[in-house]
Amino acid sequence: MIHLNAIPLDYEPRRKIISKLSMQNTWNDVFVLMTEFDTAFLCGALKTFRPKKILEVGVAAGGSTAIILQTLEEIGEAYEMHSVDLNPNFLFEGYTDRPVGFVTTYAKEKFFGKMSGTHKFHIGKILPQIIDEIGSGIDFVIIDTVHRLPGEVLDFIAALPYLADNAVVVLHDVSLHQSEAAEENATGVLFGAVTAEKFLSFQPDEYLFRYPNIAAFKVNEQTAANIENVFLSLILRWNYFPDEQIKIYRQHYRRFYSDALVEIFQDAIDMNAYNFATAQNK
Ligand SMILES: C[S@@+](CC[C@H](N)C(=O)[O-])C[C@H]1O[C@@H](n2cnc3c(N)ncnc32)[C@H](O)[C@@H]1O
Prior knowledge:
Radius of gyration: 18 Å
CATH topology: Rossmann fold
Strand order of the largest sheet: 1-7-8-6-5-2-3-4
Largest sheet: 8 strands, mixed
Shape: globular
Number of strands: 8
Bound molecules: S-adenosylmethionine
Structural class: alpha/beta
Number of helices: 12
Order of helices and strands: EHHEHEHEHEHEHHEEHHHH
Strand content: 15-25%
């Protein structure tokens, strides 16, 4: 089932926290890599579903993380949030000396005071390397990492066994392949392939397209039952080959998924490895 415009947009948490942060003279808009519409949808989803255990994968400067924390603080209930990022430093040119999440760290120190929940960074690791420490019962996930296949698809498959019933997953950049490079399609592919209740809200006129660049789905008993469709989406041609990481994902999948699904995953690896190797030799 798809729900259009069912998530109330909430622009306020971003305005509140970013107005404080942007008074610092070193502020740059790239510290939040989501549009105002995107964060309004994300904050609206948080206020609608009121999660207790939140997982964010892909932090960058941490402006969006600070907006999420502001929203959770406005809800005012106890929560546990975990933010995972592979890279120790913010990758944006001109800021590569700053640690990932530096904006969140600053906001926590200067503005949040005593918080109603906890927030922890897990930096320098991919999700399968840290998810046992985070543990199960995750009821809200935000995935915003590579945008290119296999990218976010790998992390959703890794996270699914740790999700609570009816967990909500927010995907960023679900239409980036339309507004930017065609290969930026990983979350769009995942959003299409997954079996779940889906939530989309249309963007206002000032945006290029009505179809949004952020979307959410709510897992149900059909999500795990039909997970083969997500595995099969990895048969598409990959846009990068995560050589070292792929073994870690495969080992992780072996713990939770059938031999048949791991074999399909192996075929996706083999075909893409072949194509990358032959492309390099041309
Ligand atoms: C687009 S940025 C995240 C933007 C952030 N969500 C925001 O709204 O400002 C992508 C981040 O994902 C991280 N990343 C890339 N691959 C990753 C992976 N496999 N696991 C975790 N983080 C990853 C990068 O280091 C980068 O900081």
